[in-house]
Amino acid sequence: EVHLVESGGGLVKPGGSLRLSCAASGFSFTNSYMSWVRQAPGKGLEWVGHIVTISHGGTSTYGAPVKDRFTISRDDSKSTLYLQMDSLKTEDTAMYYCGTGSASDTWGQGTMVTVSS
Amino acid sequence: DIQMTQSPSSLSASVGDRVTITCRASQGISHYLAWFQQKPGKAPRSLINGASTLQSGVSSKFSGSGSGTDFTLTISSLQPEDFATYYCQQYSTYPFSFGPGTKVDIK
Lengths: 117, 107
What we know:
The structure holds two protein chains of two kinds. By secondary structure, chain A is mostly beta strands.
């Protein structure tokens, strides 16, 4: 069974940094594209970014609101996806979800990030 | 960037009703369209990808159709567990993008 578990969320001050992790199991992580999606309180879903497999170059792509501040990476030896978030803003406050594939076929339970002074 | 719109933004329906939600892309996305269901306080759940391919374990009362710019999600006979918010997402062109959602509640 495909299983994704996000962790690393918490309270951080504006301008601060946080790294989220997504531990994967039950499928071939090495051969899977992976996505991050977020949802601000009471709002809709927002695509954060996406990383392709290492065999396809391991490149990541981002949505405009997070580009140049967030970095997606992967450690296939640990079946873990990461989201490094720098220069955090109050508008980054959201539940962050990881998902399998370009179309997020399976989602984790999410980890909450609150950016506040 | 590709903009996704959904209509209606909300609807009220009764158990047993047939419900159709429309999703439109601002430019052609072929069949690279996914549908998700989200209940309050829960993570989204994938229903359909490739515009019409049902995810494993998803009830056949859900169906998707469309290609290019216009897509629909149909629930053939609404059940109490189907009251939720539904989102579409295009994954044709970066940056990928979601529709604003359609909330389905009880009439």
